[in-house]
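Minutes, project check-in
Item: structure for the 153-residue chain
Input as provided by the requester:
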Amino acid sequence: MAASTCARCIGQLSTARFAFHIKPCTGWPWCVEEMDTAMKRLCLLALLAVAGIAGMERADGAGECGRVPVDRVAFQVVTPCGAATRDAKVVVPGRCCAAVQRFGRNPICLCAIMLSTTSKNAGVKPEIAVTIPKRCNLADRPVGYKCGDYTLP
């Protein structure tokens, strides 16, 4: 009885939204409970669908630096390098060299870091930043790699 009453209530409720009057409904408490449960299920389903779609976009790890966004990696590299990215005469700190060595194995990632929004916002000068692998004396640096308008020495 509650299901048929509820169906009638839902019909009256949807009619009431457009007619601006509500007819009395004897099964109203059951309708509310069933509609609340249905709404919760619908919201959960929508949340799972959105989470699934968002997960599919990042599952392939197709970014320049793998699954980690370039700007996050750039923050990890730019922070220890500090002034060495703006002045070629500054001695490159050891922490900076370690970070550049770790991410510099992938020249595409290294280039993306140097040209990233995070690096630009931090005041990094790309023409100086490309010299850091050489200034760190990294033997396995990508010599001659073209990075935008710059070439790694």
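Outcome recorded: The chain is about 60% helix and 5% strand.
No further action items on this chain.
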